[in-house]
Specification:
The complex is a heterodimer of chains A (763) and B (488).
Chain A (H helix, E strand, L loop, with lengths): L11 H6 L15 E7 L5 E7 L1 H5 L3 E6 L23 E2 L5 E7 L2 H8 L3 E6 L6 H7 L8 E5 L2 H6 L3 E9 L11 E6 L5 E5 L4 H12 L6 E5 L14 H14 L3 E4 L2 H7 L6 E9 L5 E13 L5 H10 L10 E9 L13 H19 L3 H8 L10 E2 L5 E2 L4 H11 L2 H13 L4 E14 L8 E8 L5 E5 L8 H13 L6 E3 L2 E2 L14 H28 L7 E3 L2 E4 L2 E4 H10 L5 E7 L4 E3 L4 E3 L3 E14 L5 E11 L6 H19 L31 E7 L23 H12 L16 H12 L1
Parallel strand pairs in A: 1-12, 10-11, 14-15, 20-21, 30-31
Antiparallel strand pairs in A: 1-5, 2-4, 2-6, 3-5, 7-15, 8-13, 9-10, 9-12, 11-22, 13-14, 16-17, 18-29, 19-20, 19-26, 23-24, 24-25, 27-28, 29-30
Chain B lengths: L2 E5 L2 E5 L8 H8 L18 E5 L5 E5 L12 E3 L13 H8 L9 H13 L7 H4 L11 H9 L7 H23 L21 E2 L4 H10 L4 E3 L5 H6 L8 E3 L9 E4 L2 E5 L4 H8 L4 H8 L4 H6 L2 H6 L7 H7 L3 E6 L2 E6 H4 E3 L2 E2 L6 E7 L5 E7 L10 E10 L2 E10 L6 E2 L1 H7 L10 H10 L10 H16 L8 H8 L1
Parallel strand pairs in B: 1-5, 6-8, 7-8
Antiparallel strand pairs in B: 1-2, 3-4, 3-5, 9-10, 10-15, 11-12, 11-15, 13-14, 16-17, 17-18, 18-19
The chains are: A alpha+beta (763), B alpha+beta (488).
Flavin-adenine dinucleotide binds next to strand 7, helix 11, helix 12 and strand 15 of chain B.
Chain lengths: 763, 488
């Protein structure tokens, strides 16, 4: 059985030999053009003059287009039709594309793009959440407010009140492969686009619209991405539309890839948040009520900010039963890159908010922070009376109580806490700290209709299987997991299943590969398609052998029917000779979900995925530098489809989460220009930043919800385990103080922020 | 410029190589070898890591994105397409990356696999993967499976076909040398100042030796010297600049030697950072550890100490330590040489004491009067540019400071000495209390700026922290990295 085997990534051999092809690796026809955008370096203003003559005169330039030169307006927004491909009269952020150059080489296009004479009359730019609040610059009129019970009254009646503010920085995706797209014009106006995108269908729609073509004339394909992390859900639209528009205008193939600096400057990042909190606790450590205010910096256009901010609200409870809660969510419009999807999609910010509250309360109450958290956990599965989340969903599958117990035992928590305290007492300059973070993450798109998927499967007469579905591969191993599902269905080895590129011409009207939903949705759709073909084959063999179809067995690469044993290829050939169709589509929609966004109530999630992490750090009070010494993780992937790939998601997600909260700092100057726009200034974790000791294990247990082979989604949830590192730093910093002052460590906790927190301990 | 080198074992001849074309662009655009990836185009992510074998048989991992074609002259270049055996047998690094699930999206993978193969080929059983892989970013895996792969191949034999490049070079290099001698070495190669018809395309020059360079540069004072190109490369890939007339000076005899002289250790300007590290790690462990944190393996294998000084960067890591060590700089123009204190070389931000046609020939480190304490502070520990970097040369007698030379990078527009701090240290007890006046003096010596790397206030505070760490050196593990194994 292929399901549950720890098989390598389907492209592993191609990866290590350099043979795996990404968009920029595809050989180009001889007359292909290369595109680059010319960017605004002003955050907000009116375009007074745009002289492109020097751009046109630059070596190798074939075409230059500004907004006014387009045959029809082109929009690249995934949501509100508020993102013109090229600035129209005004610029809204520093980095916004103003014109596009097509030249005979990538370098020629880049050189030319810098030759424009662009004059912008600056307008006041709104850069910070404070400025946006003051100016009333926001999306959706006013804040979105959800109330459960009377939070203010509950807090007022509590024994202890903690309040404060948590600043959470944004995060650049830094997919190793930058954004890229290629357009190949076909006959009769058809357009074939090959793009590095998590959302081929949306690219198809945006391109069709920009070209004035029916969707049926635009085909979008993606074999793999060199990383996505949400950054290729909507942010690739601009390149795909640009190459298609210029390809249509010139009749020549066009390719565009962003240089890394342009990628930083143009594309959106994770939303930075400011979270104000006030929470009331009983002396027993139980939370009575909490009030949150989320200030969300959305950037200049709407993009996916509304569902991101919603998901932050939906995760403001994380793992805790909270009797009364109020959340105010302000979606603020600023003259900066349009913040977008990033692994967790607002969830991490919501979770970090309540984890800060728990950490702060534990400090104030003098309780062990893990003990305090456990006292507030939701009731464990199977709960006689399930708790409800603040938005009214029953929590029926909560397993963090047992999972935490197991993690702490395995990591020797109690003994290490004592040992660390003793060690710290003997140190003058260093302190070690230990921090914990659980995660309970809701699985499903909150826009319920997106929870659907399609698949297309063919069986050939030699027994080989052609597999296609709407999910995209960005490194997460989706294709292999789904191939394992298909192989299991036919009882053939995975090597018999040929994985093919995601293609809007094969499976239409798909959702983005996002919200961790890839294998849940596409695995089910593929299973349905395979089951359909298998049933037809079984039916035919059953009639040949005068048995019932359910007596036909597909296993071990063979098919047993009555006394006969056929190879899968023989069975396929027999079916073909019997004029049985060996091709089928499959479709799946997630059952049982219903969500009323306006009221903030319902069951947005089909189920919850869980995990917990314990991280140990050491901090130096002289410079604020620190290292991660050890991390222990136990994570719930249900009955894993592929434990090796799932562990990979957990390790990678944790380190990415740690990066977000520690060294990854986005810095804009006072004019709204991003100053950290390359890896020289923006520091994602490097090899030596992984924990020196790194123990990651899967929590064994089937998903009670009827998912594909009872597995659970695993793409996003582990990112939030990185919060344990922020908690560990806070713990180490607190050890420099006498216990009076709470460190209130903001993120990213750079050495500079850590040193400032250490200084506060002394004050 | 005529070039000849080996590409995956096969000889490539370029009668007229464009001297500023990067190896990465050439591989991908001209040769269709797209396994080598562009992740950042500035030497920071390692996705374009290739292996280069030198004529002496040593093998280096280099970033192809800032490796200019002329830097390959007479060498053997191996890309990911040439890492497996000709019969398709995978290199142990490739197999281990598969077995340990070291690739997810796969985009960093060719570079990581090449870096692993380079570390493996060095056949150093103690080779620390943290050092070998510090220059390779991966956004997917969290590095854990790559570390497992690195461990798995530690004792695998070096495949035969990897050593083949060194053998092929030995066979080939007489021919290469011959072909080099035959071809015009760029304008003015033999007749300084001559304007030949080849002047326009052949803008690049390769000196025979340091005297040849001196004569040529005096005749072409406007020319740019290219050493490791780890700095200049970015002017091409990011600045999109035309660098004009060039001389490629890496490997120039007379510029690459490390020698003991009566004045001290004389280090040729074209000595790579990596070779410098090997040379000083024993004598000055703090300096050695600092040099280990300059860029990462690929950058150190190309970058030179001369470039590190000559680029005049206020945040370069070599100068503060060298200034504290009392190093002198030898500058040369034609036949004329002069030697100055290193700190006097840095006049102001972006301005150095270097006349047109003059170049850095060597830096000399005198015998050490005391102990050097160096520490670099950056947002990320490895492969990051300093927010600040401080160096203290301290000698004590009976617990009091008798000699103090202090220099910082990142605290001013140039690498700069701290005269008031030094004065406050001399005669003071070498203790936390004793250096209190020196801590205060730091704020008079330096008025740092705020930028994306750190605020002015943090720079000053951390500068004090570095001094305190120097004092406390014996009491606490001076380098946090050293704690990594210890505490867990
Ligand atoms: C990813 C990355 C990370 C880096 N990290 C660090 C770091 O941590 N610390 C640090 O200090 N630096 C760092 N650098 C900067 C750079 O690598 C070093 O400064 C390096 O030493 C430069 O040497 P080079 O030989 O490559 O110089 P080149 O790029 O070849 O030249 C730099 C400049 O010096 C001039 N020059 C070179 N040699 C001479 C000479 N002999 N005489 C006169 N002029 C000369 C050149 O004309 C040019 O103007 C990093 C660079 C990169 C790309
Ligand atoms: S595997 Fe994706 S960046 Fe390393």
């Amino acid at each position: 059985m292929s399901v549950a085997d720890p098989l390598p990534h389907d492209s592993a051999r191609l990866h290590v030999t350099g043979a795996a092809r990404y968009v920029d690796d595809i050989p180009l026809p001889a007359n292909a053009l290369h595109l680059a955008f010319g960017l605004s370096d002003v955050a907000h203003g009116v375009i007074e003059a745009l002289d492109l003559s020097a751009v046109r005169a630059s070596d190798g330039v074939v075409e230059v287009l500004a907004a006014g030169d387009l045959a029809r307006p082109a929009d690249v927004s995934p949501s509100a039709h508020d993102e013109p491909l090229l600035a129209e009269g005004r610029v809204h952020y520093a980095g916004q594309p103003v014109f596009v150059v097509a030249a005979t080489s990538h370098r020629a296009a880049r050189v030319a793009a810098r030759r424009a004479a662009l004059r912008v009359a600056p307008l006041p730019a709104i850069l910070t959440v404070d400025e946006a609040l003051a100016a009333g610059s926001r999306f959706e009129g006013g804040p979105v407010v959800w109330d459960k019970g009377d939070a203010e009254a509950a807090i007022a009646a509590a024994d202890l009140v903690v309040e404060g503010t948590l600043e959470l920085g944004g995060q650049e995706h830094f997919y190793l492969e930058g954004q890229a797209a290629l357009a190949l014009p076909g006959e009769g106006g058809e357009m074939h686009v090959i793009a590095s995108t998590q959302h081929p269908t949306e690219v198809q729609h945006k391109v069709a619209h920009a070209l004035g073509l029916p969707q049926a004339m635009v085909r979008v394909e993606c074999r793999r991405m060199g990383g996505g992390f949400g950054g290729k859900e909507s942010q690739g639209n601009a390149l795909a539309v640009a190459v298609a528009v210029v390809a249509q205008a010139t009749g020549r193939p066009c390719k565009m890839r962003y240089d890394r600096d342009d990628d930083f400057l143009i594309t959106g990042k994770r939303h930075d948040f400011r979270i104000d909190y006030r929470a009331g606790f009983g002396r027993d450590g139980r939370i009575r009520g909490v009030a949150f205010r989320h200030l969300v910096r959305c950037g200049w256009s709407q993009d996916l900010s509304l569902p991101v901010a919603d998901r932050a609200m939906l995760h403001a409870d994380n793992a805790y039963r909270i009797p009364a809660m109020r959340i105010e969510s302000h979606r603020l419009r600023t003259n900066t890159q349009s913040a977008t999807a990033f692994r967790g999609f607002g969830g991490p910010q919501g979770v970090a908010g309540i984890e800060r509250v728990m950490d702060h309360a534990a400090h104030a109450l003098g309780l062990d922070p893990i003990e305090l958290r456990r006292r507030n956990y939701y009731a464990e599965m199977p709960a006689p009376r399930p708790d409800r989340t603040p938005y009214g969903q029953e929590v029926r599958d909560f397993i963090l109580g047992g999972l935490t117990e197991k993690l702490l035992d395995g990591a020797d928590y109690a003994a290490r806490r004592a040992e660390i305290a003793a060690w710290n007492a003997g140190q003058r300059v260093l302190r070690r700290g230990i921090g914990f973070a659980p995660v309970k993450f809701g699985i499903s798109f909150t826009l319920s209709h997106l929870n659907q998927a399609g698949a297309l499967v063919h069986v050939y007469t030699d027994g080989s299987v052609h597999l296609n579905h709407g999910g995209t591969e960005m490194g997460q191993g989706l294709f292999q997991k789904v191939a394992q599902v298909a192989a299991a269905e036919f009882g053939v080895p995975v090597s018999a299943v040929r994985i093919t590129a995601t293609d809007t011409a094969k499976v239409p009207n798909t959702s983005a590969t996002a919200a961790s939903s890839g294998s849940d949705l596409n695995g089910m759709a593929v299973q349905a398609a395979c089951a359909e073909i298998r049933a037809r084959m079984a039916g035919h063999l059953a009639s040949l052998h005068q048995i019932t179809p359910d007596a036909v067995v597909f296993a071990g690469g063979a098919v047993q029917a009555g006394g006969a044993r056929y190879s899968f290829a023989e069975a396929a050939t027999l079916a073909w000779q019997g004029r049985v169709s060996l091709s089928a589509t499959g479709f799946y929609r997630t059952p049982d979900i219903a969500w009323d966004r306006a009221r903030g109530e319902g069951r947005p999630f089909y189920y919850f995925a869980h995990g917990a992490a314990l991280t140990e750090v050491v901090v130096d009070r002289l410079t604020g530098e620190y290292r991660i010494l050890r991390a222990d993780i136990l994570h719930d992937a249900g009955a894993s489809l592929n434990p090796a790939l799932d562990i990979g998601q957990i390790e990678g997600g944790y380190v990415q989460g740690v990066g977000w909260l520690t060294t990854e700092e986005l810095v804009w100057d006072n004019a709204g220009r991003l100053r950290t726009h390359a890896p020289s200034t923006y520091k994602i974790p490097a090899f030596g930043d992984r924990p020196a000791v790194f123990n990651v294990a899967l929590h064994q247990g089937a998903n009670p919800a009827a998912t594909i082979h009872r597995s659970k989604a695993v793409g996003e949830p582990p990112l939030m385990l990185g919060i344990s590192a922020l908690m560990a730093l806070s713990d180490a910093v607190a050890a420099f103080g006498g216990g009076r002052v709470y460190p209130a460590l903001d993120a990213p906790a750079t050495p500079e922020r850590v040193l400032a927190a250490v200084e506060r301990m002394r004050g | 410029m005529h070039l000849a080198f080996l590409l995956n074992g096969e000889r490539v001849d370029f009668p007229d190589a464009p001297p500023t074309r990067t190896t990465l662009d050439w591989l991908r655009e001209d040769r269709g070898l797209t396994g080598t990836k562009e992740g950042c185009n500035e030497g920071d992510c390692g996705a374009c890591t290739v292996l280069v074998t030198d004529p002496d048989g040593s093998l280096r991992p280099l970033n192809a994105c800032i490796l200019l074609l002329p830097q390959l002259q007479g060498r053997a270049l191996r890309t990911i397409e040439g890492l497996a055996a000709p019969d398709g047998t995978l290199h142990p690094a490739q197999q281990a990356m598969i077995d340990h699930h070291g690739a997810q999206c796969g985009f960093c993978t060719p570079g990581i696999t090449m870096a692993l193969a380079a570390a493996h080929a060095s056949a150093d059983p103690d080779l620390d993967p943290d050092t070998a892989l510090a220059g390779n970013l991966c956004r997917c895996t969290g590095y854990a499976p790559i570390a497992r792969a690195a461990r798995a191949i530690a004792h695998a034999p070096i495949p035969d076909w990897i050593a083949a490049d060194a053998r092929a070079l030995a066979d080939l290099s007489p021919h290469l040398a011959l072909s080099l001698a035959e071809i015009p070495r760029g304008s003015g190669g033999s007749a300084p100042g001559a304007t030949t018809p080849a002047d326009a395309p052949a803008r690049a020059f390769r000196p025979r030796d340091v005297d040849d360079l001196a004569a040529w540069h005096a005749a072409h004072p406007e020319a740019t010297l290219v050493a490791g190109a780890t700095d200049l490369g970015l002017h091409l890939t990011k600045g999109l600049r035309d660098l004009g007339r060039l001389a490629f000076i890496s490997g120039t005899p007379g510029l690459c030697e490390i020698a003991s002289t009566p004045e001290g250790l004389r280090i040729g300007a074209a000595v790579t950072i990596e070779d410098l590290r090997a040379a000083i790690a024993q004598a000055a462990p703090d300096f050695g550890e600092l040099v280990r944190r300059i860029g990462a393996t690929q950058v150190r294998a190309a970058g030179t100490i001369g470039g590190n000084i000559a680029n005049g960067s206020p945040i370069g890591d070599g100068p503060p330590a060298l200034i504290a060590l009392g190093a002198t700089l030898t500058l040369r123009r034609g036949a004329a040489r002069r030697t100055i204190a290193l700190e006097d070389f840095f006049l102001a931000y972006g301005r150095q004491d270097r006349a047109p046609g003059e170049f850095v020939e060597a830096v000399t480190i005198p015998p050490s009067p005391g102990t050097l304490h160096v520490h670099k502070v950056s947002k990320r520990f490895d492969q990051d540019i300093s927010a600040l970097c401080g160096a203290f040369m301290i000698a004590t007698e009976a617990g009091r400071v008798t000699h103090a030379r202090v220099a910082f990078g990142g605290m001013a527009g140039t690498p700069k000495r701290a005269p008031l701090t030094e004065a406050a240290l001399i005669g003071a007890p070498w203790s936390e209390a004793g250096v209190a006046p020196a801590l205060a003096a730091l704020a008079q010596d330096y008025a740092p700026i705020s930028d994306m790397r750190a605020s002015a206030a943090y720079r000053l505070e951390a500068a004090r922290g570095i001094l305190l760490r120097a004092v406390a050196g014996d009491l606490v593990p001076p380098v946090l990295g050293a704690l990594q194994g210890g505490a867990a």
